[in-house]
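Data deposition worksheet. Section B asks for the primary sequence of the deposited chain exactly as it was used as input, without tags or linkers unless they were present during the calculation. Section C holds the resulting structure in token form. Section D is free text for depositor observations; keep each observation to a single sentence. Incomplete worksheets are returned to the depositor.
Section A, Depositor: J.P.
Section B:
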Amino acid sequence: MSILTRVKLFWLIFFLLPVNLIAQFLPRDITSGKFYYSEEVLVKDGPQQDLYHRAKSWFASLGQNKKTLRQDDSVNGMVIGDIRSIISVFDGHQNQKFKLGYTVHVQLTDDRYWLSLTDFQLQNLSLLKESGSAKETPINNQPLEAWLKPQSQVNLKDKEPIYMKGLENAVYKSIFTQLKDLKAHML
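Section C:
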């Protein structure tokens, strides 16, 4: 088989791989064991004040209450806010809802910004019927690390691996969808 044929075969196989086979993950801090995400993004012709207003616009577009922003510093180019979203995971019988929360830090300078995500929390929402209507009641708000333990630490009697994989995928999809949206806002 020629080298050209091998290269074509490699690219064909690469593009045919399902996206789920490519591992998605958030790195863990070695000392604390907590998930985090950080990235430096270059923006051509992006003055600090323009980037600042774009970041504020993104937080405002989330439609959450005014308590979303923790820090709003236009002089030093810093915006810090909390993100909350609802994710749904099928547990084999029904869809389970979770509230995912995390903190977004955006540090801005001319032509670039630093983005970091920290303090991930996951909260199970249980459906209770009150007066004939379903009301969501929060249960056990915990750090994301408690839900998504390394495979060696998972007690399979407590949680089914397929359900946990679905939860992991839903968490990553939610986080990276928000990241993609933020980056689009910052252009």
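Section D:
The longest helix spans residues 161-186.
The chain has one domain: 22-186.
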